NAD(P)-dependent oxidoreductase
Amino acid sequence: MTTTTTLAGKTILMSGGSRGIGLAIAKRAAQDGANVAIIAKTDQAHPKLEGTVHTAADEIRAAGADAGAKALAIVGDVRDEASVQDAVSATVAEFGGIDIVVNNASAINLGGSAQIDMKRFDLMHDINTRGTFLLTRTALQYLRTSEDPRILTLSPPLNLSAKWLGAYPAYMLAKYGMTLATLGIGAETHIPATALWPRTTIQTAAVLNILGGEEVYRRSRTVELYSDAAHAVLTAPGDTVAGQALLCEDVLEAVGVTDFSRYSPGTDEVELHPDAFVD
């Protein structure tokens, strides 16, 4: 895999992106001069989490200021069909089309099958699987007119080992659903579609608050690992990444990255924490 282009002039529509990995991917794209629209519910600041859709747009503009990048903040909900249609329409009205859809919005709950509340189950599936399907299919008419359309979803490879099938089935179904929706729509439409996932956990609020607290956070790589890998996927020839579920580290190694210390959590002695669904 070799990178052949930049994202200059491309229009990206991303779900989520107020903070964390999604925001890092958006800012990396803006550095090339991409226009980025983000649809998220975060109109107001969360008491425990930094960032809103508006502050994210400001950060994206700042990251791409020298390259002429633009950003559009859209308050909306990927679970709602009208909201998603409005987001697609607003993006096209602002930037003239859509070249790339990034499915970043995701909910997580690691409750066991007998313990998880079905409302939490439904929430994960509404945001993760249904949201991915809905945003992608709503943007299809514009992706089809792009000279280089792409679909990128932040979801794991379909690892059917008993270890992962039995770990947390509710969450597994929702995340694997994202991957299946992405690869399925890609195969149907022949638009290059890729799922992307890290080998190790990433320093996000979810890791800090849900997956293991400060200890796991300390043993996680920085968000730039994901944003650099996403950039490499989105600038690679489409036929080399279409229909694949890739790991961030493999993508970066394929484009010549040999020193991963730039994504280090801060010390060479840290044993990195493996992410879910990766053996």
